Structure formats: C-alpha cells, structure tokens
Amino acid sequence: MSIIRRSLTSLLIALACLVSVPAMAQEDPGKALLVNLAEAPSSRVEEAINAIVDSGDERARGWLEAYGNNRLSRIKDTGQVVLVLNNRGRDWEIADPLTGENLGEMSRRELDRVAINNAIRGKLEGIMAMLDLNAADPDVREASARDMMGKVDAALVAPLEARLEKEESAAVRDRIEAALAIYRVEQGDIEAVEVLAGSLHPRARAALNNAAASDNSQLAEAANKALASIEQKLKINKAAETLYFGLSMGSVLVLAAIGLAITFGVMGVINMAHGELIMLGAYTTWGVQQLLPGQPGLALLLSIPAGFLVAAIAGIIIERSVIQHLKGRPLETLLATFGISLILQQLVRTVISPQNRTVVTPEWMSGSVVINDALSLTLNRLYVMAFALIVFAALMMIMRRTRLGLDVRAVTQNRAMARSMGIKATKVDILTFALGSGVAGLAGVALSQLTNVGPNLGQNYIIDSFMVVVFGGVGNLWGTLIAGLSLGTINQLLEPWAGAVLAKIIVLVFIILFIQKRPKGLFPQKGRAAEN
Amino acid sequence: MSIKKHVKLGLSALALSVSMHSAAAEDPIKVGILHSLSGTMAISETVLKDTVEMLIEQQNEKGGVLGRELEAVVVDPASDWPLFAEKARELLAQEKVDVIFGNWTSVSRKSVLPVVEELNGLLFYPVQYEGEESSENVFYTGAAPNQQAIPAVNYLMNEIGVERWVLAGTDYVYPRTTNKILETYLKDHGVADEDIMVNYTPFGHSDWQNIVSDIKSFGSAGKKTAVVSTINGDANVPFYRELGNQGISASDIPVVAFSVGEQELSGIDTGPLVGHLAAWNYFMSVDTDANWDFIDAWIDYKGDDTVVTNDPMEAHYIGFNMYIEAVKKAGTTDVDEVKDAIVGVSVPNLTGGYATMMPNHHITKPVLIGEIQDNGQFSVVWETPSTVAGDAWSDFLPGSRDMIADWRKPMFCGTFNTATGSCGASSGEMAAEAE
Which of A71, A365, A372, A451 to mutate to test the interface with B (most CBs of B within 10 A)? Predict the structure, then answer.
C-alpha cells in the first residue's frame, strides 16, 4: 500500500516535472533581457545592451535596431515590452518582439517608450556595426567597418583584430585597419599615424587634428605631416565639390527659367505668375503621390506628364482669360499676371492648406554617390541635373525640328507676315504659352524633390528666373542654359567666402552691371528679327 | 392633465431658454485673435488662431467666466507687419476687445507694441523671442533666451561635451540677437574665437549644399562640434534634407534647433534626422494626462487624427488660462485691474508643472531638450530640474545687463536701469522710435 502510494507520489512528481520543464522552457530568456533594458537607468543601459548581444540570441539585432529607432515601448499597465510597427496617428500598431506576433493597435497614451539618447545611440551603432561585420555580403561589411571609424573603444579592439585575421576583402580590411588606427592614434601610437596618412574620412582627420594638438611632440609632428598630405587632397576634392554644387544650383535655375525663356523670351509676355505655375507642378506631384500611397517612385514618374498637363492647362486659361486681351501692353500684363499669382497662391492656401505638403523622396533618389570619403554627390540633385538637361534637349528639339517650333519662330519674328502665310497666330500663341507653362510645371515636379512644396514656392524662384533669362539673352534657349549654369556656379563659388546673403547681392549687382554693358544679354538675337 | 404637464414643461423650457439667452446677452467678453491667416506666416499662425478658438469654445462649455460668454473676434493681418498695427487698432478701437492673443514674428510684435500701449490693450504673445523687451500691456508666454537658448547650450556643453560651435540662423532680428547673446555666453565660458562659426541665410533659403559642406569640414577639426540653429520657418526642411543627404548624423554633429517643432517636422521625412535636437518648453510627446487630454481635444476639434500640437500652442493654452484666472481674481475685465491681478497668477502647464506670471510679464517654464524621432515627434532626453523664470533683459548683452522690469507698484517700469536708478522709455516708445 505504502509502496503504491510512494510510487504514485513519485509518479506525480515526475509528471509535475515533465509539465514544468516545458513551462520553464516557455519563459523566453529574451523577455528578461528586454525588460532589463527597459528598466535600466541611463548609467546601466550599456550593460543591458551588452547582455543582449552576449546572449547570442538571433533576434538581438532586430531588438537593438528597434531600440535605436525608438521603436521599443512598454505597455504601461502590464509592463510588457512591445515592438512599435507604426507610430503615426493616435493608435499605434504593436507586435511582440519575442514571437513577432502582431498585437494589433493600441493608443499611444498607453505606451511608454524605452528611452534612448544620442550617446547610447552612438554606442549602439558601434555594436550593431560589429554584428554586421560578420555578414556574408562584403558591401555590408565595408559599410559597417566604415561606421566603426571613430567608434572603436577598448572593448572592441580584440574582436576587431580577430575579424581582421579572417577578413578576405581588401576594402573591408582597409576600413578595419583605419578604424583601429584611429583608436590607436587616440591612444598616442605614432605608428598608427602612417595608416591614416591618406585617409579623407572626417573622423580620421579629427583624430589626426587631436594628435597634432597633443603634448607629445613626436606624435604631433607625425600627425602634422599626415595632415599636410590630406589637406592637399582635400583641396582638390573641395574644388570638385563646389563645381558640383554650382552646376546643381545652376540646373535648378535653368529648369525654373526655361519655361519663362519661352513665354517671356520668345513671346515677350511678362508672366509674373510663372512661379505659381511651377508651384502647380509641385502640388501635382504631391497629389499624384496621395493617389498612389506607398509608391513614391512611380508617382514621381507619373507626375512628370501630369505636372506638365496641369500647368499647361492653367497656362492656357491664363492666356485666354487675361493675357490675350493685353497684347502689346507689357505694364498691364505685368500687373495682371502679378494679380493672378496672388490669386493662385491664396487659392492653394484656402483649398489645400496654408501648411507645406510632404512630398516623399523615393528610395532611389535619397542619399548620395560616394566618390571618396571627402566627395559624395547627392543623388536627388544628380537626378535633377539630368532632368534639366533632358528637358532642355527636348525643348530644343521642339523649337528646331517640329512644325510647332517653326510656327512659333515665324510668329515671333514677324507676326503679320506669318499670318499672311496662313499660320494661325492665335493658335500658336496658345500653344506656345501652354508649352512654356507646362515646362514650368515640370520644374515644379523637380523642385518638389529639393525644396518645400507650399504656397510660397513660386515666389522664391520668379526673380531668379527673370534674372537668368535676361542675363542669357531674351529669346535664346542656349543663353538660358549657359546663364543658369554660370550664375549657379558663380553663386556657389562666392557663398563660402561671402555668405549666402551677400553672394546673392553680388550676383544681382553683377547682372545689373553686365546688362548696362550688354543690354541684350549674353547671346543677343541677331538678324532682322532682333531689330524691333 | 397631460396637456397641462406639457404646457408646464414648455413654459419652463421657455423660461430656461430665456434666462440662458439673457446670460448670453449680457455683453460677451471679446477675445481678439491677431494671427496671419494668409501670406508667409499663415503656415505657423493659422494653428494658433484655431487653438484660441478651441480654448474659447471649451471655456464657454464650462459656462464662460464671471457668468459671461467669450466671443472670438478674428482678423487677418496677412503676414504684413504694418497691417498688424492697423488690425490691432481695429480690434481695440472699433471692436473694443478685452484682450488680444496674437503675433508670431518679432517684427510684427514691434509693430503692434505702440498701438497696444497707446490704447491700453492686453496682448498675449505666444512665441519664443529674443528678449530685450517688457511692456506694461504685453504678456510674453513664449520663451525668453534664458528659457531656451542658454539651457540648450549648457546641455550641449556639459552633457555632450561640445567644444566647437556653429551658430546658423536666418538673417533677421531674433537669430541675430540670440546669436549675439550666445556668442558672449560661449566666450565667457572659454570658447575660443576660431571655435565659433556664424552663418546667416535669407528667409526661405533652399540651397544648403555649400553651408552643410562647410559645417562638415568645420566639424572634422577634432573637437566635438554642434550646430545651434535659429533657422526659421520652412528653410529648415531643405536644410535637414541636405544634412541627411550629405550623411551628417546626429552622433557626429548634432543640430539643436530653436525654431523647429512638431509642426515644422510634419512636412518632412524625419528618418535621416533621428537624434538631432530641439529645445522647447513643451513637446507633444510629453507623457502627462493634461497633455494627452489637450491633444485629444485638439484632434477632435480639428477632426483629423494626424494633427500635431506644438510649443506656441501650449503658450496660448497657458496664456488663455492665466487671463481667465486673472479676470476671476479681478472680478472684472477692466484692463488695468486684470493687469494688476495677473502678476503672480499660477496655472497648470501641459508638462506636469505650473506656470506663474512674473512681475516682468514673462512666465516660468521648464526647459526640455528633445531628440527627433522617426515619426516627427521628439523624445525628451533632458530637462531642467525646475522651472526657469523668463528674463526680459539678457545678462549677456552690454547695456541690457543693468536693466530690469517690474510691473508691480511702486516701480511699475519695464526698462528700469539699476545702474542709473531711473526708468527709461517704454518698449512701445522704443519700437515706435525704431520705425
């Protein structure tokens, strides 16, 4: 009896053990790690992060990334740590960081963010880069090794050296060596200065600058020598960079002005509402993006024809309703179109919003092409530059090679003669103005990627546009291109030396003086057409 | 019987509506709103107009004040500085408003100042500004430089270890004065001339390539570098975009901004900006019940889930409640009595503390430093241990050092010079003279 009872008890205990073992296994170690991180006071956060890394958990990188992006929160009531998937609006979408299970939406009021600041984020970046150094893709490894530069501390030296032993890619090896060298230079190691001698990376230069200012005269001397060689290279890169800035600003000016070069230059209409046509193009981009949420790239491509059409139609309306009645009265045209520009601005304010609209930059347009550590070309501007050249080429084609272009040139050179040859001057007027306005719309599409899309967008470009057209020579598209690019470059050359405000003034004074000397601009029209 | 009952009910309902009507018919308290609804500043100011209207609506639901309803009188000064003065005159002389909530830019405030002093009005000004002013008729519910700029610089210096400074601003009075104060302050704390870079850009500047590139090379000199930005309005968007494109992250060169709030960030993808800083006295993300209630009310009022709140809105919230308290305390809306009653009034702010109106017509505020998050919100990383009282006259400018303002009797002066012991011209007279 007692034996039976005893064996029954032991059976029960064994059963209980069996049940409790999976129960214990269910208690995910990750939970404790996350709660530990969430509860750590700022002085112990680093410890908590290291505990997560040391756990070797596969999910560790995801957790740390979420933490770095402010996406870890605690539910106030239960203390559960959750992953915030969407943190916009009133209710946030959350998920379980342990299982990845979607927990639905929760009011942001119920959530308490796990705090992080820049200091911790900097450390986190170093740790994450260290994790990424083991990635299979050499590009990822190189990027993470570059991130390590300037972030190496005593704890990271040993693992980095171990990684260096194993590393096969030469580019990654160079980066790791540079990252280690920065640390060693900071520690006063003279030999490491050699490694940094050719590096253009700002953090390498920072480390050398610090070494050059140190008390150790040998170290300072070596650092100064290395810096001298860097400075030389930097100067060349700086010059290339300024040129790029100038051309990119110039291409923006060309884009903004080239529509005006047609309406003002070719037709002779002073259209103060040109800026607002640009604005309409930019708003079209925003509108198309609203229609196609989640596909900013496709939306941007579609807004190129859409922006052209919207602005062209607006142009036709302006031409038919106002400008045609004021033919040959430039002062009245100026005032009337200025009124139109104010009407359009306020229309956008009332109908859409006085607030600026967000136009999303597609992934393939953000960031930059890295030439070297000191020179990188921002992608959005590179695209805009190419776009400006394409628009210019297309316009040249239209003016030179198409029937419309021929008609336009004929009507502008001698209206009466063209009409007697059977050209419908009124129709040509409409089409020309529509073309110029449409191109302004295209400029708006491009500008939406560079600047604010708001009711004041146009105002910022109208003066510059007139400046470019007048400087380039009225009625000459080539003049507009050259004038735009050169004014942009001059402005950017002056800016580091004179400041943004003064640079603008100097450019304006320069143009005024230039026009005094050559009233018809850089490329005046020649021949009989120019006489009147 | 039932008919009788109905008649009775009807009569009492009638009586009720009559009595309510008579309560409302007693002159309402007129609240003037002087914010631009068109032009450049509409982007920032329309929100403030809506805020005051919402606060009035809420107060009326509570039964108004002193048994009187409040009524908004809205005018549109159209971002046109001289028009601000005309509209202020219209509000005070024709509409006979009891109080004005308004203005954003300093230049518009300077334009209104002589008018409110002449016609003895009350103006609540909700935006952070450069200081150097204290008027009998104006209540400054935004931050003075010592409530925003100086604590932010202290944070960078002491907590982040910044030794090299870029002072970047838009070219007008607020950034220039603030940067002058900061330069003196930094030099007093041993920062060398070559470690300070000052840069001004025009309003609406959009081509930041060169300046950002300069900042990048200025920052690679070895010392920890930070940018203190007084860049105003929408020029910030291309500035931040350029920072992101040129790969300047907050852990390399943090940017601390004094004019960038939730509203400004709502027009921009903040992904690349995570970690850059702003100093304000309020952030939408502050986790207090008062704040969440305010946000919920605001969302309901606007009927849009994605609307944001910001610092000047909180300033109007505080200013409005202070006015209500002062009117209750004085028992009248008479300007002189409200002016006397309001000094010392304390009302809760939205960040879990209290704001008190000081004798110099500035208020006490906590200073918060927030880091930008990827959803366009800020997360608070540091705050002053207690509230800071606004200083009308900066201690870091020559000429302003000796000045104090105290609108209690017997001193009753906004420009008292402690060195000479005399009271100078009023702020309104000075503004009128400057024109």
Answer: A451
Class for domain A237-530, per CATH?
mainly alpha
Half-sphere exposure of B121 (CA within 13 A, CB side): 33
pLDDT of B145 reads 92
Asked if A450 is an interface residue toward chain B (Cβ–Cβ < 8 A), one would say: yes
Q: Does B269 contact A361 at a Cβ distance shorter than 8 Å?
A: yes
**Distance (Å) from the C-alpha of residue A323 to the closest C-alpha of chain B?**
25
Q: Does B179 touch chain A (CB under 8 A)?
A: no
Whether residue B410 is preceded by a cis peptide bond, meaning omega within 30 degrees of 0, is yes
> Are A117 and B287 an interchain contact pair (Cβ–Cβ within 8 Å)?
no
Q: Please give the C-alpha separations between residue B272 and each of A86, A381, B297, B375, B376, in angstroms, as whole numbers.
A: 17, 17, 31, 11, 11
DSSP assignment of B367-406:
-EEEEE-TTS-EEEEEE-SS-EE--SS-TTSTTTTTEEEE
DSSP letters along A196-234, please? HTT---HHHHHHHHHHHTSS-HHHHHHHHHHHHHHHHHH
User: Comparing C-alpha atoms, which of A521, A464, A458 is closest to residue A490?
Assistant: A464
Asked if B214 has any chain A CB less than 8 Å from its own CB, the reply is yes
The CATH code of the domain at B147-286+369-389 is 3.40.50.2300
Which one-letter amino acid corresponds to residue B326?
A
ipTM at complex level: 0.79
Q: Do A495 and B371 touch (CB under 8 A)?
A: no
pLDDT of residue A392: 96
Interchain CB distance below 8 Å, B43 and A356: yes
Q: B423 forms bridges with which residues in the sheet?
A: B416
In tens, the pLDDT along A34-45 reads 988 888 888 888
Q: How far is B169 from chain A (nearest CA, A)?
A: 11
* Residue ranges of domains in chain B: 27-142+288-364, 147-286+369-389
B27-142+288-364 topology per CATH:
Rossmann fold (3.40.50)
pLDDT digits (tens, 9 = 90+) for B56-65: 999 999 999 9
Residues A374, A234: contact at Cβ < 8 Å? yes
Annotated domain spans of chain A: 237-530
